[in-house]
Amino acid sequence: MNNAVNASTAGNGGPIVIAGAGYAGLHVALRLTAILRDRPEVELTLVDRHDYHQVITELPRVAGGTRAAGAVRIPLQDMLATRVRFVQTEINGFDLADRRLLTGTGPIGSRWLVLALGSRPNDFAIPGLAQRALSVYSASDAERVWAAVSKALDEAASATDPEQQRRLTTVVVGGGGATGVELAGELAEVLPEVASDHGLAPDRPAVQLVEAGPTILAGSSPQLIDKATRILSDLGVSVRTNAAIAAATEDGLRLKDGQLVEGGVFVWAGGVKAPELVAGSELPTGHNGRVKVDQYLRVLDHPEIYAAGDLASVTDPRTGHVLPPLAQVALEEGESVARNLDAELKGRPLEAFTFHDKGFVVSVGTRRGVADIAGITTGGRLAHLLKDAIEWEYRQSVRHLRGWDPVAR
Ligand SMILES: Cc1cc2nc3c(=O)[nH]c(=O)nc-3n(C[C@H](O)[C@H](O)[C@H](O)COP(=O)(O)OP(=O)(O)OC[C@H]3O[C@@H](n4cnc5c(N)ncnc54)[C@H](O)[C@@H]3O)c2cc1C
To answer: What would the mean pLDDT of 302-306 be, rounded to a whole number?
Structure first.
């Protein structure tokens, strides 16, 4: 699986090299496999540091101990057709002029390059935050959160000082966006039972959600925010808005107004930015270091390099806003990149990318959620079922695309 592709193999028909096997990159690989089934001469290469795809949208469940980390890591060999050459290696840089990835196993050259390397947590340079707070951006991160919560409850069970016990059993989640809300809800729902298992009173654990802005789920409809706030309150989550964090210290999170938020475990879910590797490259970047692209998702001034997913800064021409870092957006961009690469190969005009918003669904705890779909807001069991259905459908669609492999059929 570890064969690097030489730039010298590049010809008119390929190779097409895709950096990143996340939502966007994997989708490009799977769709191109299907679209180019009658063009076996076009080489497709997918590069990632892991030999599995991570279903990141399910990470809050791993962090809440309700799902095993292994269940959200799907082996790439179970998904990729034999014609896709997979290279497991770390990408360390880019040679943009020659469209080469610089990797741990040597340079990988391409005719067309697709950059889909996702994002990483953004600590907004808040002092101490990266050192003192955990993040939830991979299955391993999520496992660490669950392990930290279990350890804190263990320590609380043997603590004699009620103040210390209260502090240890408090989980503080920073960032009231969808990730923070999902995480806080999941933990609040499971912690009472887990506390009992540790010999603690079920009402001992507490979950605090700390948000710098005036509301959680910023940008959502007031109805959705209201429904989510009610469910969180019902689960006992204490939501603090207008609570910007100034620093993370040994004592806890120090807010800008001077208050101290104490806890046993701190998790940061306050936003994302482009990977370090992009910051150190000559790629044109915009807000949060995301890569600027044209309407066809080609990197500005690099027409043979495409970018998709969290890495790409894509402005929706209808609103003038940059699209948010969401799996739904990454999948649609991946689809568009695959179609445009097909158009390039066939000498057809490229299609401008348009985002078709299918709606917004957030789980709040293990049984309830909130959803805004086609202008209708729902909250409760139905929205949670919807979230489950979306994740199930995603896993099915990946399997369905795999079915296009002519060798596999
Ligand atoms: C906890 C959590 C919950 C979320 N829930 C939702 C949700 O419910 N709905 C929703 O729409 N969105 C959700 N999101 C956002 C969504 O997960 C992202 O928008 C999506 O993963 C972006 O896809 P991507 O392909 O750009 O990047 P990723 O899916 O992150 O894929 C990037 C890939 O690049 C690889 N890679 C990166 N750097 C290198 C390197 N240097 N060398 C080699 N390989 C590398 C990584 O291993 C990874 O496989 C959530 C995010 C988080 C963190």
So the answer is: 97
What is the CA(52)–ligand 1 centre distance, in A?
12
Q: Is 42 in the pocket of ligand 1 (CB under 6 A)?
A: no
User: Does the C-beta of 24 come closer than 6 Å to ligand 1?
Assistant: yes
Compute the average pLDDT of residues 233-255.
Answer: 96
Distance 23 CA to ligand 1 centre (A): 7
C-alpha 270/C-alpha 172 separation (Å) is 12
84: left (phi over 0), alpha (psi -120 to 50) or beta: beta
Contact 117 CB / ligand 1 (< 6 Å): yes
Ligand 1 pocket, residue 358 CB under 6 Å: no
The pLDDT tens digits of the residues spanning 95-106 come to 999 999 999 999
Q: How many residues does the chain have?
A: 409
Ligand 1 centroid to residue 391 C-alpha, Å:
14
- The residue type found at 34 is A
Whole-Å CA distances, 152 to 59, 103, 349: 20, 39, 58
**Is 90 exceeded by the pLDDT of residue 329?**
yes
Cβ(142) – ligand 1 distance below 6 Å: no
Burial of 27 (0-12, 13-18, 19+ CB in 10 A): buried
Structure-token match 């669950």, residue found:
146
